[in-house]
UniProtKB/TrEMBL annotation:
Protein source organism: Leifsonia tongyongensis
Domain of life: Bacteria
GO BP terms: intracellular protein transmembrane transport; protein transport by the Tat complex
Record's subcellular location: Cell membrane; Membrane
The organism's taxonomic lineage, starting at the top: Bacteria, Bacillati, Actinomycetota, Actinomycetes, Micrococcales
Family, as annotated: Belongs to the TatC family.
UniProt protein name: Sec-independent protein translocase protein TatC
Listed Pfam families: TatC (PF00902)
UniProt xrefs under PANTHER family: SEC-INDEPENDENT PROTEIN TRANSLOCASE PROTEIN TATC, SEC-INDEPENDENT PROTEIN TRANSLOCASE PROTEIN TATC, CHLOROPLASTIC-RELATED
Length: 250
């Protein structure tokens, strides 16, 4: 394909992705109320458990509309993800050889479920974090929480934990392309555990350590699972190398 043909192909893929995002955002508009109710639940629990007035606050006339639109677009991105991910994949596939295509498919079908699982884990710890951070305010004070800032906080936390769950897949991918060996992954297990514990301690500043360990345990399991997959791959690659040398020698 010429450069012009690549540009036309890219424009077609972007247009289809935009249509998918638009359709997903329309659906997200009708689901925004349900999502906002779910986001409001930790605030309701603050009022019950801490005995204070706690509520979401809109600081301007268009604040409620802007927040609903932001939630709708976020839902649209999630709902339409199969569409725009496929468009990206369809645009890149002609440039990949068979081996790279196989690795890419494996990464895609592994990373997406892990990302969703990480987002679910992040959503699980959100109420604990919100309750802890608001508990530092004196009991006689009122917690007026800016709705947009609160949504941004929750979204960034959930996405950050979702991305953290995907990182072991990158380790496997680096091993498959020959950048990182299984021995290197296993030798770094102490540093990996330290980083995981620090990350979960920062992401879950809850008074109880249960939430931290509930988040850390699956991340540790995923890390060693990645090391196991890398070890199996290195072992198979070594066997193939020995067989190839034997065939060449004969």
């Amino acid at each position: 394909m010429t450069f012009g043909e690549h540009f036309v192909e890219l424009r077609k893929r972007l247009f289809r992705s935009a249509l998918g995002l638009l359709a997903g955002s329309v659906v997200g508009w009708f689901l925004a109320g349900w999502v906002l109710d779910a986001l409001r639940e930790p605030i309701v629990q603050i009022a019950k458990q801490q005995g204070r007035l706690a509520e979401l606050n809109y600081d301007n006339i268009t604040g409620a509309f802007d927040l609903k639109m932001q939630i709708a677009i976020t839902i649209g991105v999630v709902i339409s993800s199969p569409v725009w991910l496929y468009q990206i994949w369809a645009f890149l596939v002609p440039a990949l050889n068979r081996k790279e295509l196989k690795y890419g498919l494996g990464f895609f079908f592994t990373a997406v479920p892990l990302f969703l699982a990480g987002c679910a884990a992040g959503w699980f710890v959100v109420p604990h974090i919100v309750q802890l951070l608001t508990s530092f305010a004196p009991s006689q004070d009122t917690a007026f929480i800016q709705a947009k800032d609160y949504f941004d906080f929750v979204l960034k936390l959930v996405v950050a934990i979702g991305v953290a769950f995907v990182l072991p897949v990158f380790l496997v991918l680096l091993n498959f392309v020959g950048v990182l060996s299984a021995k290197s992954i296993l030798r770094s297990w102490r540093w990996a555990l330290l980083v995981i514990v620090l990350f979960t301690a920062i992401a879950t500043p809850s008074a109880d350590v249960v939430s931290m360990f509930l988040l850390a345990i699956p991340m540790v399991v995923l890390y060693f699972a990645a090391a196991g997959v890398a070890w199996l791959h290195d072992r198979r690659a070594a066997r193939n190398a020995v067989r190839l040398e034997t065939e060449l020698a004969t």
